[in-house]
Amino acid sequence: CYNVCLAGHGYVHDWNEEQRFNIFLKTLAKIESHNWKYHTQQSTYYLGLNKFSAMTHEEFLRYTRQGSYAKKRLGAKTSSFECQSGSDQSWSSRLLPDHVDWSKKGYTTQVKDQGTCGSCWTFSATGAMEGAHFKAHGKLESFSEQQLLDCCSGEGCDGCGGGEPAIAYASVFKKGGIETEQQYPYEASQASRFYLQLTLESRNSITLKKIQHFRDFSFLFLLY
After folding, report:
1. For residues 121 and 163, is the Cβ–Cβ distance under 8 A?
2. Which of 186, 220, 223 lies closest to 91 in space, CA to CA?
3. For residue 175, what pLDDT is reported?
4. Which of 45, 158, 159, 171 is the most exposed place for a label (fewest CB within 10 A)?
5. Mean pLDDT across 97-124
6. Per-residue pLDDT averaged across 153-174, rounded?
7. pLDDT bucket at 124, cuts 50 / 70 / 90
8. Average pLDDT, the chain
9. What are phi and psi of 77, to 5 degrees?
């Protein structure tokens, strides 16, 4: 397992093999400890080994380019944009179920990999829009994170350096829509080779008609 985790993933070889193996063993111990909780029904998910298993936490942050945008936005309020506000009042009579698994209801695509780009904000945005599109049309489409990386600009859109899903929604709304993943595939970088083609063709497959902001930590609105 150790050799598989290291193979082809660009690990820095400035440490000796023993140091790297010890990092892997610590990760493995954490995984086994957590999975024991899963098998004894103390947790709802399990963990496994992957290409990050022999990395330190600092290496992982550098690999995914996390940190710079998060530190810049730490303590700041969420960027605002024109939207409609919701209220809990109209939902007060609805009982919440014990659990909801949107993936089993067909609302979510397969797991995606952001690679070495701090683009988690684009995946968060497309995931929400994919679910809303499925609810409205009964058809699950995978939307383009790469288009958001290439086309979203200004405060709250820092490409592979981080960003805010709320600003991504506003960008899609203002630009008239978003492409599917198949038409505009992900490359984990900004200004991809698909940007010029999209600009020339000026097409958007999926349109966003409305943005509605819900109160933070409102469990009722998660069912909306």
Report:
1. yes
2. 220
3. 84
4. 45
5. 89
6. 87
7. very high
8. 78
9. -75, 155
The residue written with tokens 């679910």 in the block is 131
d(CA 146, CA 181): 8
Higher confidence at residue 195 or residue 39?
A: 39
170: Cα within 13 Å, side-chain hemisphere? 17
Domains in the chain, start-ordered, CATH in brackets?
2-63 (1.10.287), 78-223 (3.90.70.10)
DSSP labels for the chain? -HHHHHTTS----SS-HHHHHHHHHHHHHHHHHHHHHHHTTS-S------TTTTS-HHHHHHHTT-SHHHHHHTTPPPPP-S-EE--SGGGTTPPPPS---TTTTT--------TTS--HHHHHHHHHHHHHHHHHHS----B-HHHHHHH--STTB-GGG-B-HHHHHHHHHHHT-B-BTTTS---SSSS-TTHHHHHHH---SB-----EE--TT-SGGGG-
- Calculate helix-pair angle for 120-137, 165-175, nearest 10 degrees: 60
- In single-letter form, the type of residue at position 40 comes to T
The pLDDT of residue 83 is 45
Half-sphere exposure of 7 (CA within 13 A, CB side): 4
Q: For tokens 């093999």, what's the residue?
A: 17
What is the Cα–Cα distance from 2 to 54, expressed in whole angstroms?
8
Mean pLDDT over residues 129-144, rounded? 94
> Is residue 95 packed enough to be buried (19+ CB in 10 Å), middle (13-18) or exposed (0-12)?
exposed
